[in-house]
Batch of 4 targets.
Target 1
Amino acid sequence: MQEYLGACHCGTVTFSFEADINELVRCACSLCTKRNAVMATVERRRLRVLSGEEALSLYQWNTGMAKHYFCSHCGIYTFHQRRTDERYFSVNAFCVDGIDATKIPVRQVDGKSRSTV
Ligand SMILES: [Zn+2]
């Protein structure tokens, strides 16, 4: 596994995690479509918020099970705790240092059929 660092746009929220990033995920639900998210899969226990935890806002919708976090200063989506398996987070690939999101295969997932809104 490799260690990665990530941050929101304004730099208030910084985080680190260990993961093997072999693929990224794009989800077709209405939220991921609007935020244009491309995400890396990270185990919850391997993700640490280094700074700005108090600046993170939580957005919940649909069943309210997933926890979508974004920086309350710059508005950038950083990561979310998944609805289907709370042991995993999805991390905004474009917030992560040292990965070229355009060079990693992207898997499309059908989050739309699992949502009611
Ligand atoms: Zn920010």
Target 2
Amino acid sequence: MKQKIFASIGAGVIGYSWALKFALAGWTVYAQNRTAASSETCKNRIEESMETLVKNGVLPEEAAKAALDRIHYTTSIQEAVQHADFIQESSREDYKTKHALVKEIEKYAPAEAVIASSTSGLLITEIAKPAIHPERFVGGHPYNPPHLIPLVEITKGDRTADWAVDKAKAVYTSIGSEPVVLNKEALGFICNRLQMALYREVANLVLEGVCSVEDADKAVVFGPGIRWGILGPSAIFELGGGAGGVSGLMNHLGPSIDLWLNDMADWKSFPKQWAQTAQAGVNEEIARRPAEIGNTKESLQAYRDHMLIELLKLHGKL
Ligand SMILES: NC(=O)c1ccc[n+]([C@@H]2O[C@H](COP(=O)([O-])OP(=O)(O)OC[C@H]3O[C@@H](n4cnc5c(N)ncnc54)[C@H](O)[C@@H]3O)[C@@H](O)[C@H]2O)c1
């Protein structure tokens, strides 16, 4: 069988992690950066993340080495994409940069290659505007870091073809990601909207003096958050509703829920003071944590990655 080739264009924070994920799935990978110095940073990030996987018992050392050997670092877009089956663009989040890259990638990419953008919020219709073949452009929005978080939100532009969406879905599934296809374009996709709906109420509760930043974090982590890592909000309510399921729960609690909704924030933007309040609250929270579960930025990140890996193992995703 022909060796599959993946090109990660703009291998920064997100692009390095995509490169790692595809290499772990057995693909030959080209990680492209504009300078040799950025390529070096990318290589270091990949090696560090690989070491974390080995240390956490997810990957035998030989497998890690074989995956590292499948990754090529280049500053040439032509070299990266010329034989690629799947191309993921993770460059700067602006149309000017992405338009220039679209033109450059299409100059060299094979006709059947799908081109996905990691964009966090730009429209695929607009990104693909200068494309000769806009039908093969999709959004493939990951959550950071894509080599650990399985979700990818696939979005279509006005001219995206169904075959490109199907191919992107098949490719992401084959590397162990969990793609969700949006039926139509929506700002913030699915998960950023969900995260911000919750976070708006966190800010409201803290600013209203109901609880501290630390207690709001604790409430999510040891309450609904720990369940959401297993079943989504509707499936959890199906269980919470007993014999009546989610519909029974909504009918039963509906009048009470309406009272809460009426009392909750419905702001269209966050209050100006929130950024500062959140930072002060998080600083206090971190300082109070026992060292073994992370009480500095570095140790928190290591703790998060370790716990993520353990959870992913339970999900059969690592
Ligand atoms: N960081 C996140 O949490 C996150 C999550 C999901 C999606 N994204 C999206 O992923 C993409 C990359 O974000 P990131 O956080 O990895 O950024 P980053 O700054 O770490 O990496 C950006 C990459 O783009 C390259 N680049 C910058 N300017 C360029 C130019 N003019 N021409 C060509 N290449 C250029 C850089 O060399 C770098 O390799 C963005 O579209 C972002 O919205 C980011």
Target 3
Amino acid sequence: MDDPDLDAAYALKTPDDNRALYANWADSYDSSFADEADYRLPQIVAFVLADVMRGSGPVLDVGAGTGLVAQNIPDRDALEIDALDISPEMLAQSAKKGLYRAYIEADLTKPVDIPDEIYGAVVSAGTFTHGHVGPEAIDTLLRIAKPGAVFVLSINSEHFSAHGFEAKFAAIESEIAQLDFRILDIYGPSGPPEHQNDKAHIAVFRKRPV
Ligand SMILES: C[S@@+](CC[C@H](N)C(=O)[O-])C[C@H]1O[C@@H](n2cnc3c(N)ncnc32)[C@H](O)[C@@H]1O
């Protein structure tokens, strides 16, 4: 079978679609997608996290995939980072890199078996996007975050508009503080021409009380 590609990923509809696509993509994701598409989001998200987290941990990487966020966090050896993903094949790739403390196979569109208030930082790149995860998952992430935890979540900007993220952030206004959005390119200049204008909102906020 040919490697899946970005357009196939954006066209997914269900968690089972995601499991099936990423099972086939895991082996070649870093080379056939991230390198070829000049995919910059994980590095951007990792750098923003390092800038705002001020040592708070442990960190949960949501939709960790092959580990590109953790790979790009400066001084990551000083941090405890857990990987959460629906795809065991993607988690297996990240495990080969030895970047994470724990590997959690879970579907974020459903309740997840993680205790309340255990993470000091929650980070995500490329998972709040077309055909993947919607705004409802933010409730779960708030539940498992400690008071004061920092969040750095990339949200594909078209997905943000189409799936009610603005309303979601308004609805959780009393639970979060210091909300800030940075809007950045997902792909660099050598990425796919038809995706050159794809942007992500990087949502940075803290869980109250800060
Ligand atoms: C585009 S990849 C991003 C991976 C990595 N963060 C990166 O930036 O390279 C999206 C990831 O989200 C995961 N994913 C998709 N749906 C999910 C769900 N419902 N729950 C948890 N993870 C999910 C996929 O398995 C995949 O690893």
Target 4
Amino acid sequence: MDLMEMIRNRRSVRTYRKGEIEEETLRKVLEAGLLAPSGRNRQPWELIVVRDPQTLKQLSECRAGGAARMLASAAAAVVVTADSAKTDVWTEDCSNAMMLMHLTADAMGLGSCWIQGRLREAPDGRTAEEYVREILGYPEDFRLEAILSLGLPEEHPEAKTAAKELEKKVHWERYEGQVE
Ligand SMILES: Cc1cc2nc3c(=O)[nH]c(=O)nc-3n(C[C@H](O)[C@H](O)[C@H](O)COP(=O)(O)O)c2cc1C
């Protein structure tokens, strides 16, 4: 697959069949995240890999409204935290790492989904960051960006194209209003 094909094929996959992810595959996904660009190359991310089914179950309850429920059937999760003291652009840096891991996972035949952690609440009223910190033990000054769920895909939605968006969302030279 060439890069554009990988980008068109990438989708959020929230249902997984039983089965483990090979260590080598998981390591490639992690490597992709660690190769992401970061402001001043500070690399503020600290990735916590979870494979224990009990812990995955606990993490699946980190978001009000069930937005993380797919973690209960995932084979693994990569929890992306940052040492925010290292840089003021840790959210951008961590988003880059998330995106590269998500894309790589998809291209390698895994199902994965971005689960937002930052600015989101747990069902008990705490922030998702506090809830996840209690389970995983990252330090007080580490911030939670997001969690990438990973598993063997039960289904994979169709590839997308951005043909319409190329007309509507791209403004050449100047913004001249929305084209209807
Ligand atoms: C910043 C961000 C936060 C997201 N948060 C969640 C989430 O908490 N739970 C979830 O199921 N999907 C989440 N998603 C996945 C989006 O819902 C998904 O990317 C979008 O619907 C487009 O679908 P696609 O990824 O299949 O193209 C998130 C995606 C991004 C980029």
